[in-house]
Amino acid sequence: MTTPTATPDAGPGSGGFGVPRALMLMLGAACVVIVIAGLQAGAWLIAPILLALVIVIAVSPVQSWLRRIGVPGWLTVLSMVLVIFAVVVGLVVLLVASVGQLVALVPQYADRTQNITNQVTNLLHRVGFDPGHAQATASSADIGKIAGAVGGLLSSVSGALTSLVFILALLLFLIAEAGGASRRLDAIGADRPHMVEAMQSFAHGTRQYLVVTAIFGLIVAVLDSVALAIMGIPLVVLWGLLSFITNFIPNVGFIIGVIPPALVGLLVGGWQLGLAVLIVYCVLNAIVQSLIQPHFTGDAVGLSTTITFVALLFWAWVLGPLGALLAIPATLLIKAVLVDCDPSARWVEALIGANSPPKKDKKKHQKGAEAAEPAGRDADGDAADTEGEPPVAAPAPRAAPAT
Question: SS3 breakdown of the chain: % helix, strand, coil, rounded to 5?
Fold first, then answer.
């Protein structure tokens, strides 16, 4: 005979093993803060790794297709690396050359800049500002400061090239090992099938997001470049490239992309041309990026507009400017690791998702519910309609065996 052992009474404010729930929440919050601080400290390493991973995921279908048609593995890796290197280096060279042209262009409008400064000073004085403060405020946007900021941007290109070399090296290794990804996933799936499904969902969602964003970014870049060329704004190639890149920044990308061409329009044609640039950008980007693209992006990644905006702010704060570009892929990765791989956490997807689950999933759920219903009842739990069908006789009870 055993004596029952008394167990601690876990009250409504206690967690498992007698630990108060408030203490568990505080420990969890402290762990989250430590993890975020670690991400910020290692942003110089984490952001390039994440960028290289996203690029490899984007080109992996092409690599798989080359292998299926019989291209040797070493030639597949070499061709993909050369193509990616050429695209990245070409974008960097184009960006540096365009910024160099901008530096040479700005001093040509020094007189116009001085006139604009004087007009702003007079306007502030009429509004009620002190003349000394008005002059200081208007002079804060002096042409020398603008040229100095652009020069500082060019001087930081050497540091960016160092990161670029690191990213290209990561791409080489990741593409070389991408061929064995299926075998690794099969090995993981033997013990963690939900983790494999989550990783595949992350890769598929990332590719869909990149394709949708690149298509709409190209559309916006072409429309903006044509509009700027019609208005006579110089360096339309640079502004089109800037529109394409900032399209990967959710929700607020076009605001970042419109500021430089609007300032150039202000220098070239006065406030009328600068205002025209703002209006054209707002109309084009409001239609394409704010009304049309979010529907396709939400269907591709399964995230609501609010979550994408919060993710933009969070990853830009944690990883810096590169985090703003990688906000959606980083959020999809966290979602795959913390939510998709855990069946008990799937309810979180209903809170952060863009819309309701797909129809095929609903049908599967309904079929499973119908199969789980006891015989004689329909999916709603009501008695099944058996009118017109022959009654089914219940089996006779079996006689008890003689003892």
Answer: 80, 0, 20
The distance from CA 259 to its chain's CA centroid, rounded to whole angstroms, is 22
pLDDT of residue 130: 60
Mapping DSSP to helix (H, G, I), strand (E, B) and coil, where does residue 42 land?
coil
| pLDDT attached to residue 297 | 72
d(CA 300, CA 99): 34
| % of the chain beyond a pLDDT of 90 | 10
Give the gyration radius of the chain's Cα atoms.
30
Residue 290 structure tokens: 């704010």
The CA distance from 171 to 89, in Å, is 14
User: Hey, how many other C-beta atoms are within 10 angstroms of the C-beta on 121?
Assistant: 19
φ, ψ at 14 (rounded to 5°): -115, 150
Q: Is 253 exposed, middle or buried (0-12, 13-18, 19+ CB in 10 A)?
A: buried
pTM value is 0.72
pLDDT band at 378 (very low <50, low <70, confident <90, very high): very low
| 28 half-sphere exposure, CB direction, 13 A CA radius | 8
Cβ atoms of residues 57 and 51 within 8 Å: no
The more confident residue out of 112 and 282 is 282
Neighbouring C-beta atoms of residue 92, cutoff 10 Å = 14
Do 331 and 311 form a contact (C-beta atoms < 8 A)?
A: yes
